[in-house]
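Progress note, sequence design subtask.
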């Protein structure tokens, strides 16, 4: 399976963001990708979760997710992207990831579990945390994919839960906010999650200045297979289950561990 990470810079114009996703998805498809992963809040550029931003949240059958489904069908690849999801009757919204396939449209939704109440932000004031019902996974071309979001990267238990259900690649759409040592944390944590779980990690963030940029794909040994710097762009890499098996022969850390993560 081939996976593309698609680093963009979302704006306040939801329709323009949808059009940009369509344009970039075509580039990923031309690269031979089966799966294109876009950042957190791909739907709308967020610097602060103000009432003016929250009022633009949409239901999953709204125009943005419907538009993503049309792009997936037109381009012929699976799309993962971050949306601001409306919660009926509540002022808060969900920070969601949606998964859309060419054949079936919307097939999976993940609501961000760990909210960014750190580095001076308080995401929980505006976002409802997702439930802890287990890993959200889907299959692409025989490869099992898991999804987490941004701040989830700092919690190794969340990644380990995906290793326990046999995920081959864990994707982290993000809007990794610039700040002290943040770019270093981003790459270090992405590589650590890959190394400790001996699976692939694809971490894609908003580009500068909305995010840090530096989106990357890491293999199970911690090797960076592809990286995007400060500009918007696409990079594509093959996800090879055989590589996972090979690494686990050399580094059987999952088999050697002496405790598990409680459900």
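Output:
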């Amino acid at each position: 399976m081939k996976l593309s990470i698609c680093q963009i810079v979302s704006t306040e114009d939801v329709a323009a963001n949808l059009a940009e996703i369509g344009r970039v998805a075509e580039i990923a498809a031309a690269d031979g990708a089966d799966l294109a992963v876009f950042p957190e809040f791909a739907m709308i550029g967020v610097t602060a979760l103000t009432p003016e931003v929250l009022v633009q949240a949409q239901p999953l059958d709204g125009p943005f997710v419907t538009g993503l489904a049309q792009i997936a069908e037109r381009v012929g690849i699976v799309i993962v992207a971050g949306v601001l999801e409306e919660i009926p009757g509540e002022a808060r919204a969900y920070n969601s990831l949606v998964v859309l396939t060419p054949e079936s449209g919307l097939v999976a939704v993940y609501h961000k579990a760990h909210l960014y109440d750190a580095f001076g932000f308080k995401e929980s004031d505006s976002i409802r945390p997702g439930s802890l019902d287990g890993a959200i996974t889907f299959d692409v071309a025989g490869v099992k994919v898991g999804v987490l979001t941004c701040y989830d990267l700092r919690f190794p238990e969340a990644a380990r839960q995906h290793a326990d259900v046999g995920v081959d690649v864990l994707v982290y759409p993000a809007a990794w906010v610039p700040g002290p040592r943040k770019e270093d944390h981003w790459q270090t944590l992405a590589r650590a999650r890959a190394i400790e779980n001996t699976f692939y990690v694809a971490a894609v963030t908003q580009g500068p200045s909305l995010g840090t940029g530096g989106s990357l794909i890491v293999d199970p040994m911690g090797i960076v297979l592809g990286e995007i710097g400060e500009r918007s762009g696409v990079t594509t890499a093959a996800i090879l289950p055989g590589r996972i098996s090979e690494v686990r022969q050399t580094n059987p850390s999952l088999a050697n561990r002496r405790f598990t993560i409680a459900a």
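The CA atoms of residues 248 and 255 lie 9 Å apart. Work on this subtask will continue into the next period as scheduled.
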